[in-house]
Description:
By secondary structure, the protein is an alpha/beta fold. The protein has 13 helices and 14 strands.
Amino acid sequence: MMISQRQAYGEVLAELGKEYENLVVCDADLAHATMTCIFEKNHPDRFYNFGIAEANMVCAAAGMAHNGLMPFVSTFALFGAGRAYEQIRNSVCYANANVKFGLCHAGISTGEDGGSHQSIEDIALMRVLPNMKIFVPCDAVQLKQAVRTAAKTEGPVYVRIARPPRAVLTPEDAPFVPGQAHILRQGSDICLMASGLMVEESLKAAELLEREGIHAAVVNHISIKPFDRETTLAFHAQMPILTVEEHSVIGGLGSAAAEVIAGVPGGGFGMVGIIDKFGRSGKPEDLFQAYGLTPENICRQAKALL
Length: 306
């Protein structure tokens, strides 16, 4: 079953709108791309289109939060995390305002929109901000879990949302705890630590490695901040770790893991991700091939690390 995270985002917002009377949604003229149009249809009196004015939208959301509302701010990840960065820093995180960010079209899987719209630095920007929590779901089920958790969590939360439809990997009853990684596959030779759409690619890579007699564990780090230090250190003590992400290797999952294991004796360490480059236009599958975000390249990098 293939479902897009953005479709799931619109659906869960509409569901939460029935549960939380103070929940409002703010969008920057992209409701049919972020799928907040589903919430708008169900709760038109609590939907606000700010147009292409992301900084104004974030400031208004901060004001709403200070008056008891729970705003979900939605736009493309590049414009939300980038264009409105100062407002997120000063008006939301500095004040620890209860604003949630559901930022869509993250990573190079945005596709033909090209490098100007492909955010490969959003996690790094949000991760450095005090009070901000960051969830990077791997599928539609986990996206709904992340959004529901964000609604229950006081303070700023960033949920990173992918554009394309993808297979559902997560059982409906799977637990979701901020700061807790999910071990999807046990292994004894190397650990593939992945986030977002790269979780599925890492599971495929583990199957390829298995054919060559290499037993790879796969860990889904949906919670980038808070980060699961305990699980990371436990695997580091036993085997090499290879992080896999659809984000720059600077400041994302790889950096978070490296910061935890720095100076701690253990196995080797490597990173698969976007290596200090911008995105470009193309079909997502072609871009994944061009940037090495494929099971085959993950497999190659794992064997090189071993």
